[in-house]
C-alpha cells in the first residue's frame, strides 16, 4: 500500500518529531550511575569516543572519554546531545501496523513477522525474487551491515539490496579502487600533524566532522599551510591560508589546472611516478590545455590563487589531501576523486609519515558499512559480487551453492526508479530515510506509494516509515554490541549500554527471526554480535578489506585496530602503502586521465542560479534522530537559503524574506539569509529537513555513471521573493505534503 | 575546606580564531544541573552578514572582580584558587549591577530565577582534578585547559595574554586570551 494512512499532522501528533529536553535538574541517577559505558558517538564517521552514563537501564547522561586517542574527550554539539535520543517520547516500543484513516496500531511480534514473511513470499511468487527489495544503511554496525547482506542474499534471495552509502562515499570508493585497488583513507589522522600543506576540498569539516578540526590546527601550529576549496567561506575557510571559492560543478577543472602547473614546472616525483604508478603520460595529456586562465574562467577562482595553491602543493615535502561529499555528490564524482588522487600521485606523497590522502567518510559506519556486503554489487571483505572466485568463497562461508547467490542488483536510486516503473513491488528498509535523503523526493514519494508492501525497521517513525505497512521497532546504536570502522579505517567497539525499551527488539534479533521464518534459520543462528563478527572475519579473509585478524578483545585492548589485519598476530595498518605495493592487479598506483565536463544541469535564462546543498553542525543526515533533540533543533531550527547580497539585490530579496526556489523537479520556500560568505552566483540550502522544508524537493537525480551517486551538489534554479517574513520555526516541517 | 585535587598549575586559554561556532561548549556547559541546563558560556556571530566568525565568551575570572565589587548583596566571591563564583543563590537580589559592570559582558540575569548566573569554571569538575566541560569538549580547542608550558609548546605562534586595558583601567584575569606572538596586553579603546 505504502500510502500515508492518515494526515502527516495526525501521525506526527503520535510519533513526532517531538523535541526531547533533559529535565532542568538532569535525569535522576546521573550523578550516581550504575555504569559508565565506553562507546562511541553514533553521528558521523569520526566515531568519537564517549562514555554513556546508565542508571536503571536508561542512558541518563554522558561523560567525555579522555583516553580515546582520536578525540581525547572532544565532542561536537551532536555528540554532547547524543544521549538525548534515549528516553525519547517518540521511541517506537512495539511493532506497528498501518490502519487506513487512523495511522498505526500495535501488532504483536508474531503477527508482524508473519505478515512480513507472507508478503515477501507472495510478492516473490507473483513477480519473481528480485521484485522484493531491501534498502539498508551505514549508521548500522559492521555486524548489522554484514547480516543485512547475508539476509538479502541467503534468506530473501533477492539481488536488489542497496544502501544509503550510495548517497555518501561511493564516488570516493570507486575512485580509490581505480587508483589504489582498495577503498580506505590511506592514513590515520595523526599523519596530519606534520603535513606541510593540507588541501581540504568539498568538506565542511568544522560542521560535519567538527572534531577533525583539532588535528588540522595541530598541523597549523606546526607550520602547515591550509588550502580550503569550497563555494562558501565555511568556518575552516575563514582562517585558511588560501580559500579557493570554486563554482559548484567545476572541481575537476581546478585539479586539472593544478596538475598541469605541477607538470609544467616540474614539481613532480619522477622516481615515484616511474616506479610505482601507471597512466601518467595520458593523465598529463588530458590536462594539457588547462591553463590557469582557462581554470579561472571555468571555476571562477582567480588564477593567482590557483597558482599559489599549486605552488604550495608542488613544493611541499609532506602533505595531506582530504575530500568529502562536496566533490563526490556529482555526476562526475568519481572523476573529481581521481583528479585529487592524480595530484597526490604526481608528487609521490603517499605511504610515508605525514604524507596522506583520503575521503572523510560521512556516516557513522560509512567505512565499515561499505565493506561488508549490503551494497548491490559487493560481498563481504569488499569483494565483487560479479567475480566468480569471490562468489565461490562467500557461497562457501554461507553454506549455499554458488549459483543460488544472487548477482548484482540495482543501486538505491535505480531501485526507486524501478519501484516507480512498477517492476519492484516490495521493500524492506532499515537505517534509511529516502524521503528526506534522496534527491527529487516528490518522485520518491510517488514511487513509495506504488509499493504493494513496505516494511520498515526503525527506532523512530521516520518520514519514510510513515508510509510503511508494518513497522518493526528496532534498536539504537547503544542497544547492541558491535563494531564500526571509523573514517580513519580504525575498527572500534560499540557497546550495549542498555537493552531496547518496551517490546522493541535488537535489529539483529529481528533480522534473524525473519530469516528463520523464510526458511533460512540454520544460517542465522548467531548467539550474539561477536558470533556475527567472527563470521564476518572469515568472510572478509583474503578480501581487500581483511578483518580476519581483528577480534573483539584485540579491539578493546588497543582502543581500535586499523584494517587490513590479515592474521591475529598482525598489528593492523594505520598507514597504507608504506611498501609501495598497491592493491591493484599490477601492484602500482594508477593515474586516471580526467577531462573536465559540465555538471548534468547548467544554468540558463530560465534557471539562472546555481543551487548547492549541504549540512549544518547541529543535524545529522536526514535528521531522524537529531530533529528530535531539542537543543540541536533550537540551535538551527530550520533550513535557510544562503545568498550573497549582490544576488539578493538583483531579485530584491530582503533578509529573512521567504524566497521561492524553483527547479525542474519542484518548488520550495525558504527564508533568505543574506551573507557575503558565499559565491555571488550560487545559493546554498542544507538538506536535513523533510516535507515542505526539504531541499531535496529541488535536487536532481542524475547519477555518476560509475558510482551511481546522485548529483546533490549542483543544479540550476530560479528565485522569487514572496514578500512574506516568518520567524524561525514558525512554519512546521510536516513530513509529507 | 581544603580541596587538594584542584590543580593550580592548570589555566584556561581562549583562542577566538579557532572558534568554529559549533556550540558544543554551550551544550556541554548546560549539562550541569547546577546551571539548571542553562549555558554559562556564550557563542555569538560577530556579524553573520559579512563573516562566519564567532566569538566565545567565558567568565574571565578577574583578579579584582568588578562584578563582586559592585554587588550590593555580597553574593559574588573569589576563592583562593582565583575562581570567581556565580552568585550565591541565598544572597543574590537580581539587581543586575554585576551585569552592567562586567567589562567582558559575562554575567547574565536569568529572569526565570531572578538572579545572576555565570561561569564558575566548572568548580565541581576542576576541584576534582578534571578539566572544565567546555574546554574538554571543544572540538577545535579554541578553549584549552592545561598548563602554560603545554600551551607554549603546542602553539608556538601565539602568546597567552591576561591583561586587558579598558581606557585607563587595567583588568588582569585568570583566563588567558591567545594573541599573536609577543603580545603582552589587549588594549580596548
UniProtKB/TrEMBL annotation, chain A:
Annotated ranges, domain 4Fe-4S Mo/W bis-MGD-type: 34-90
Ribonucleoprotein keyword on record: no
CDD domains cross-referenced by the UniProt entry: MopB_CT_Fdh-Nap-like
Domain of life: Bacteria
InterPro entries: Asp_de-COase-like_dom_sf, MoPterin_dinucl-bd_dom, Mopterin_OxRdtase, Mopterin_OxRdtase_4Fe-4S_dom, MopterinOxRdtase_cofactor_BS, Prok_molybdopt-oxidoreductase
Membrane-spanning ranges: none
Entries under SMART domains matching the protein: Molybdop_Fe4S4
Pfam family, one: Molydop_binding
Keywords for this protein: 4Fe-4S, Iron, Iron-sulfur, Metal-binding
PANTHER family with a match to the protein in the record: NADH-QUINONE OXIDOREDUCTASE SUBUNIT G, RESPIRATORY NITRATE REDUCTASE
Protein name: Molybdopterin oxidoreductase family protein
Species per Swiss-Prot/TrEMBL record: Chitinophaga hostae
Upper taxonomic lineage: Bacteria, Pseudomonadati, Bacteroidota, Chitinophagia, Chitinophagales
UniProtKB/TrEMBL annotation, chain B:
Keyword Iron-sulfur: yes
Protein name, UniProt field: 4Fe-4S binding protein
Alphabetical UniProt keywords: 4Fe-4S, Electron transport, Iron, Iron-sulfur, Metal-binding, Repeat, Transport
Domain 4Fe-4S ferredoxin-type: 10-29, 48-81, 83-112
Pfam families tied to this protein: Fer4_11, Fer4_4
Annotated InterPro entries: 4Fe4S_Fe-S-bd, 4Fe4S_Fe_S_CS, ET_IronSulfur_Cluster-Binding
Amino acid at each position: 500500500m505504502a500510502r500515508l494512512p492518515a494526515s502527516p499532522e495526525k501521525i506526527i501528533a503520535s510519533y513526532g518529531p517531538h523535541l526531547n529536553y533533559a529535565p532542568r535538574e538532569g535525569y535522576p541517577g546521573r550523578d550516581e550511575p550504575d555504569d559508565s559505558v565506553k562507546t562511541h558517538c553514533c553521528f558521523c564517521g569520526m566515531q568519537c569516543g564517549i562514555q554513556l552514563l546508565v542508571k536503571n537501564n536508561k542512558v541518563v547522561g554522558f561523560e567525555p572519554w579522555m583516553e580515546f586517542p582520536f578525540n581525547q574527550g572532544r565532542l561536537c554539539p551532536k555528540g554532547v546531545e547524543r544521549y538525548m535520543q534515549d528516553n525519547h517520547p517518540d521511541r517506537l516500543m512495539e511493532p506497528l501496523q498501518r490502519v487506513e484513516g487512523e495511522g498505526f496500531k500495535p501488532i504483536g511480534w508474531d503477527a508482524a513477522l508473519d505478515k512480513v514473511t507472507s508478503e515477501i513470499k507472495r510478492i516473490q511468487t507473483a513477480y519473481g525474487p528480485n521484485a522484493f527489495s531491501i534498502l539498508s544503511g551505514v549508521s548500522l554496525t559492521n555486524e548489522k551491515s554484514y547480516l543485512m547482506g547475508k539476509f538479502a542474499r541467503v534468506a530473501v534471495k533477492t539481488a536488489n539490496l542497496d544502501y544509503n552509502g550510495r548517497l555518501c562515499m561511493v564516488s570516493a570508493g570507486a575512485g580509490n579502487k581505480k587508483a589504489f585497488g582498495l577503498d580506505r583513507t590511506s592514513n590515520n589522522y595523526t599523519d596530519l600533524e606534520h603535513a606541510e600543506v593540507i588541501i581540504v576540498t568539498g568538506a565542511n569539516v568544522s560542521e560535519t566532522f567538527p572534531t577533525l578540526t583539532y588535528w588540522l590546527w595541530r598541523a597549523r601550529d606546526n607550520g602547515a599551510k591550509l588550502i580550503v576549496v569550497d563555494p562558501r567561506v565555511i568556518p575552516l575557510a575563514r582562517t585558511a591560508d588560501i580559500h579557493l571559492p570554486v563554482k559548484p560543478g567545476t572541481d575537476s577543472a581546478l585539479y586539472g589546472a593544478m596538475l598541469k602547473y605541477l607538470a609544467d614546472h616540474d614539481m613532480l616525483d619522477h622516481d615515484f611516478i616511474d616506479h610505482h604508478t601507471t597512466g601518467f603520460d595520458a593523465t598529463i595529456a588530458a590536462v594539457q590545455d588547462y591553463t590557469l586562465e582557462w581554470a579561472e574562467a571555468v571555476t571562477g577562482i582567480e588564477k593567482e590563487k590557483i597558482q599559489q595553491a599549486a605552488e604550495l602543493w608542488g613544493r611541499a615535502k609532506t602533505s595531506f589531501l582530504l575530500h568529502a561529499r562536496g566533490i563526490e555528490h556529482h555526476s562526475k564524482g568519481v572523476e573529481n576523486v581521481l583528479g585529487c588522487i592524480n595530484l597526490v600521485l604526481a608528487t609521490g606523497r603517499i605511504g610515508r609519515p605525514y604524507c596522506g590522502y583520503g575521503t572523510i567518510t560521512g556516516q557513522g559506519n560509512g567505512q565499515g558499512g561499505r565493506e561488508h556486503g549490503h551494497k548491490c554489487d559487493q560481498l563481504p571483505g569488499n569483494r565483487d559480487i560479479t567475480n566468480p572466485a569471490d562468489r565461490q568463497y562467500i557461497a562457501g562461508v554461507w553454506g549455499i551453492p554458488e549459483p543460488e547467490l544472487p548477482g548484482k542488483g540495482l543501486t538505491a536510486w535505480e531501485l526507486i526508479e524501478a519501484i516507480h516503473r512498477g517492476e519492484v513491488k516490495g521493500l524492506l528498509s532499515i537505517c534509511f530515510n529516502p524521503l528526506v535523503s534522496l534527491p527529487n523526493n516528490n518522485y520518491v514519494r510517488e514511487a513509495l506509494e506504488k509499493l504493494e508492501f513496505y516494511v520498515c525497521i526503525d527506532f523512530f517513525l521516520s518520514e519514510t516509515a510513515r508510509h510503511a505497512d508494518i513497522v518493526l521497532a528496532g534498536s539504537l546504536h547503544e542497544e547492541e554490541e558491535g563494531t564500526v570502522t571509523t573514517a580513519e579505517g580504525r575498527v572500534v567497539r560499540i557497546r550495549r549500554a542498555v537493552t531496547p525499551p518496551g517490546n522493541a527488539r535488537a535489529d539483529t534479533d529481528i533480522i534473524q527471526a525473519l530469516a528463520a521464518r523464510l526458511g533460512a534459520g540454520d544460517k542465522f543462528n548467531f548467539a550474539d554480535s561477536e558470533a556475527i563478527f567472527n563470521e564476518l572475519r572469515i568472510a572478509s579473509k583474503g578480501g581487500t578489506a581483511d578483518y580476519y585478524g581483528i577480534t573483539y578483545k584485540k579491539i578493546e585492548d588497543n582502543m581500535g585496530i586499523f584494517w587490513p589485519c590479515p592474521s591475529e598476530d598482525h598489528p593492523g595498518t594505520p598507514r597504507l602503502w608504506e611498501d609501495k605495493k598497491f592493491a591493484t592487479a599490477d601492484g602500482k598506483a594508477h593515474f586516471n586521465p580526467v577531462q573536465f565536463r559540465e555538471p548534468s544541469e547548467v544554468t540558463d535564462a530560465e534557471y539562472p542560479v546555481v543551487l548547492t546543498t549541504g549540512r549544518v553542525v547541529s543535524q545529522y543526515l536526514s535528521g531522524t534522530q537529531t530533529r528530535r533533540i531539542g537543543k540541536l533543533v533550537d540551535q538551527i531550527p530550520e533550513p535557510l537559503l544562503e545568498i550573497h547580497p549582490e544576488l539578493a539585490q538583483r531579485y530584491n530579496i530582503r533578509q529573512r524574506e521567504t524566497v521561492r526556489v524553483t527547479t525542474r523537479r519542484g518548488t520550495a520556500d525558504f527564508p533568505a539569509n543574506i551573507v557575503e560568505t558565499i559565491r555571488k552566483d550560487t545559493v546554498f540550502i542544507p538538506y536535513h529537513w523533510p516535507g515542505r522544508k526539504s531541499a531535496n524537493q529541488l535536487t536532481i537525480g542524475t547519477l555518476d555513471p560509475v558510482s551511481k551517486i546522485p548529483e546533490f551538489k549542483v543544479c540550476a534554479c530560479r528565485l522569487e521573493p514572496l514578500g512574506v517574513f516568518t520567524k524561525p520555526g514558525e512554519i512546521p516541517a510536516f513530513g509529507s505534503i | 575546606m581544603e580541596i587538594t585535587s584542584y590543580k593550580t598549575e592548570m589555566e584556561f586559554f581562549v583562542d577566538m580564531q579557532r572558534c568554529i561556532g559549533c556550540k558544543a561548549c554551550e551544550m556541554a556547559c548546560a549539562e550541569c544541573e547546577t546551571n539548571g541546563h542553562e549555558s554559562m558560556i556564550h557563542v555569538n556571530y560577530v556579524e553573520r552578514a559579512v563573516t562566519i566568525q564567532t566569538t566565545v565568551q567565558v567568565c574571565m575570572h578577574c583578579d579584582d572582580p568588578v562584578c563582586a565589587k559592585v554587588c550590593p548583596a555580597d553574593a559574588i566571591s573569589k576563592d583562593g584558587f582565583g575562581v570567581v563564583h556565580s552568585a550565591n543563590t541565598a544572597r543574590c537580589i537580581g539587581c543586575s549591577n554585576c551585569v552592567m559592570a562586567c567589562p567582558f559582558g559575562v554575567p547574565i540575569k536569568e529572569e526565570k530565577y531572578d538572579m545572576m548566573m555565570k561561569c564558575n569554571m566548572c568548580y565541581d569538575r576542576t576541584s576534582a582534578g578534571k578539566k572544565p566541560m567546555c574546554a574538554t569538549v571543544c572540538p577545535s580547542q579554541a578553549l584549552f585547559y592545561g598548563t602554560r608550558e603545554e600551551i607554549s609548546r603546542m602553539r608556538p605562534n601565539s602568546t597567552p595574554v591576561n591583561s586587558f586595558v579598558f581606557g585607563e583601567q587595567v583588568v588582569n584575569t585568570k583566563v588567558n586570551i591567545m594573541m599573536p606572538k609577543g603580545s603582552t596586553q589587549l588594549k580596548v579603546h
